[in-house]
Design goal:
two-stranded antiparallel sheet; globular; seven-stranded parallel beta sheet; alpha/beta; about 300 residues
Amino acid sequence: MRHRTLGSLRVSAIGLGAMPLSIEGRPDETRALATVHAALDSGVTLLDTADSYHLPGAEPGHNELLVARALAAYGGDTDDVLVATKGGRGRPADGSWTVDGDPRRLKSAAEASLRRLGIEAIGLYQLHKPDPDVPFEESVGALRELLDEGKIRLAGVSNTDADQIRAAHRILGDRLVSVQNRYSPAVRDSEAELRLCAELGLAFLPWSPLGGISRSSLDGPSQPADARPGAFRAVARAHGVSPQRVALAWLLARSPGVIPIPGASRPETIRDSAAAADLVLDAQELDLLNDAAVPVG
């Protein structure tokens, strides 16, 4: 497994988005734990979770507790594993995704995440989404207080635009280490944010990185989004690998700061994703993929 830099840390170039293990269509716990363990066996050292990754109307934290159990049950060394979690969203019984950036509730949510994960300090804590009803600077100020109190070690923001990234960087300085936005072969509207992260030395963690190649985990089990031949499938055939692996390798080639966090609900899926770290695409292939029309299926 190749590695990339996140703040002062070295983490695997491919992470695991653990959300599919806890939301609708989730696997049983045996398979969920096996999926996390397969990620660790493949060299993955970045596990991404959130307090809101649970079934609608359920108690927050199902995914965090699952990740904690998986790490406790793993037979190998987990000292280098970075657990990244997020706060500021909720999942009421109607299945929607709410936003709450109130600083007091963010701090309370972080403390609850800390207890569920059973660690002394959260490795990376991220504001899940800006709250339009709360000044962004106040929400980020809660992250600064958590850093100062030693309850989190590093901070990140998610679903943010370039101006918000700059604001967070002004408030947090070099303790802001990452931005987690949606970015994939089919969804490329965070190009400006990707470039800004490169300028500021921030890691860029694409969520739903296989959009255009596979359905989002929110849509159910992973499956091809479009069976028609396309650039990503053509390159995959040439290498004898899956289109998903090509998509992740393409993302890695976009910038040295990109660390994709593909979701998985089966061990074989995350093994295939992790192997993307070793897939090198040549300049001609990258040009072809960069120019691929949307959808890219």
